[in-house]
Design goal:
The complex is a heterodimer of chains A (106) and B (159).
Chain A lengths: L3 H8 L3 H12 L2 E2 H7 L4 H13 L3 E6 L2 E6 L5 H28 L2
Antiparallel strand pairs in A: 1-3, 2-3
Helix pairs in contact in A: 2-4, 3-4
Chain B lengths: L9 E7 L3 H10 L1 H4 L11 E6 L6 E6 L4 E11 L3 E6 L15 E11 L2 E9 L11 H4 L5 H14 L1
Antiparallel strand pairs in B: 1-7, 2-3, 3-4, 4-5, 5-6, 6-7
The chains are: A alpha+beta (106), B alpha+beta (159).
Chain lengths: 106, 159
């Protein structure tokens, strides 16, 4: 079973791709900018970006002759959805617990 | 919310009818009383959840058989305003021992009125869990834990 989520997780298993991903989390960047900042060649960066793009983690758009890459806001969708739900539940439980205590011992 | 949540974070907030000191102490001292029940990596039921209220302490679950699961490290402890802890749980629903591969949770307490407190939670640096996510390919088809919740989510999203 191939899933969107699994592709994204596998893509981030590589240290260089993760380094690229973290830089893009900071702000959108062009290929050349990423390459100058990392100990890998520009073609290698392009290849890693392609994997990240195929995995749905980054998107790109053209600005003049350059391609600017940024994180796809949906890339960590499943992980975020899980944690969002988890903390929703936890905070709702917390509200009930703290307000019950205030009522019992004002 | 006027600020946009980064792709690598989730944010949540809630307002409770309680003074800030009380809100902070319940959140930390009584964490186990409201933590979602499915949050359990032990093989047995949880006897208690302990939140060690100091920097360098842990949040851990103790099972009914005495086994322990330390799943968070307390990174900041500033009553009654702020607490930060690590999230040492991998997407495979295992304890993550490499701190570089863990995310973190910051909880801020803001007094809106004397008896009313806003609690703002941010779980951030989620991309740090990236290393080691290869194993999820197998895990997706396993039973229980993380993939199960994701399935549940998919069902809800599709409903």
């Amino acid at each position: 079973m191939r899933t969107y989520q699994t592709d994204g997780l596998t893509a981030l298993g590589d240290p260089t791709r993760r380094a690229i991903f973290e830089r893009l989390a900071d702000r959108p960047r062009a290929v050349g900018e990423l390459a100058s900042d990392l100990p890998v060649s520009r073609p290698a960066v392009s290849q890693h970006l392609k994997v990240l793009k195929d995995a749905g983690l980054v998107v790109d758009h053209a600005v003049g002759t350059r391609r600017i890459y940024r994180l796809d806001p949906d890339g960590l969708r499943d992980l975020r959805a899980y944690l969002d739900h988890f903390w929703d539940q936890a905070l709702a439980g917390f509200k009930a617990a703290v307000e019950r205590q205030v009522k019992e011992t004002p | 919310m006027s600020t946009q949540t980064p792709a690598t974070s989730v944010r949540n907030s809630i307002v409770v009818d309680a003074p800030i000191e009380r809100a902070f102490s319940v959140f930390t001292d009584d964490f186990g009383s409201f933590k979602p029940r499915e949050h359990n990596m032990l093989a047995v039921d949880i006897e208690e959840t302990v939140f060690e209220t100091r920097v360098g302490g842990n949040i851990y679950d103790r099972g009914v058989d005495g086994s322990e699961c330390r799943w968070a490290r307390v990174l900041a402890f500033e009553p009654p305003d702020r607490v930060v802890f690590s999230w040492d749980i991998s997407p495979q629903w295992q304890i993550e021992t490499d701190p570089d591969r863990t995310s973190e949770v910051e909880v801020r307490f803001v007094a809106e009125e004397p008896g009313r407190t806003r609690v703002e939670l941010e779980h951030r640096n989620l991309d740090r869990h990236g290393e080691g996510w290869e194993g999820v390919r197998e895990g997706v088809q396993g039973d229980g834990g993380w993939p199960l919740y994701l399935d549940r989510f998919a069902e809800q999203a599709a409903a």
